[in-house]
From TrEMBL:
It comes from the Bacteria. Residues 30-217 form the SIS domain. This is SIS domain-containing protein. It comes from Cohnella silvisoli. It holds the Pfam family SIS_2.
């Protein structure tokens, strides 16, 4: 446990020191989209989908955030199935169509390896639609790895902005000599910091620009339900008006 704490603390510090510039870029890109009444889409497969849920409809969350949650690509229907599905080519175009991802939006793609077909094709397809793509990935894993996709590209080579989670290859950070294996993945805890730090900065940018962001409250505080219901109603009215 102590080793894991030290590993996470060290990676968080490295991430904070080396990735600030790109987190700031992502925040400004997102702020510009919000001010243009565009959407911030978050997408990940496997365990990475948790970071798409992390920022959605929660205390301190922005109304403009929309996760792309596809059950077959998550873990709900089995880990081996989701692993096979995220390697399936030509799947991403369906998701981009179904979620109506369009020019001016921003798509945040979370993929620790950055190697599998669906995240890569989400990035390619989104950019073809005029969407800015922000990748959250593990360059220590991805950069030396062989490409898996027919394009010969990895996620970080396609995205407009790349944020490195500074993890180890394979993600697990604590090596156990007794069994010759490692435990303690870091991509989720570090990734949660990255996406929330980016949103905090995004909101600060909106306020500095004189724009009032719409922020959800916790549903477990007294005024939370009423506040959030009004936001949802206003969002529905905007969609009908648009």
């Amino acid at each position: 446990m102590n080793k894991y704490y030290e590993k996470v603390k060290g990676i968080l510090e490295q991430c904070f020191q080396t990735q600030q510039k790109d987190i700031l870029k992502a925040a400004e890109c997102g702020a510009q989209a919000v001010m243009a009444n565009k959407q911030l889409f978050f997408f990940g497969t496997g365990h990475s989908h948790m970071l798409a849920e992390e920022v959605y409809y929660r205390a301190g969350g922005l109304k403009n955030i929309k996760p792309i949650l596809e059950s077959a690509l998550m873990l709900h229907e089995g880990g081996t199935k989701s692993t096979r599905m995220e390697r399936l080519e030509d799947y991403a175009a369906i998701l981009l169509d179904e979620h109506k991802v369009e020019a001016g939006d921003v798509l945040f793609i979370i993929s620790n390896s950055g190697l599998n077909a669906v995240p890569i094709e989400m990035a390619i397809g989104a950019k073809a639609r005029g969407v800015k793509v922000v990748a959250l990935t593990n360059l220590n894993h991805s950069a030396p790895a062989k490409p898996r996709h027919r394009s010969g590209k990895k996620l970080y080579e396609i995205a407009d902005i790349v944020i490195d989670n500074c993890g180890l290859p394979g993600d697990a950070a604590v090596h156990l000599d007794a069994i010759g294996l490692s435990v303690g993945p870091t991509s989720t805890v570090v990734g949660a910091f990255i996406v929330n730090a980016m949103i905090v900065q995004l909101v600060e940018n909106l306020i500095a620009a004189g724009f009032v962001p719409q922020i959800y409250l916790s549903a477990n505080v007294e005024e939370g339900d009423e506040h959030n219901a009004k936001m949802i109603e206003s969002a529905a009215a905007e969609r009908q008006g648009g």
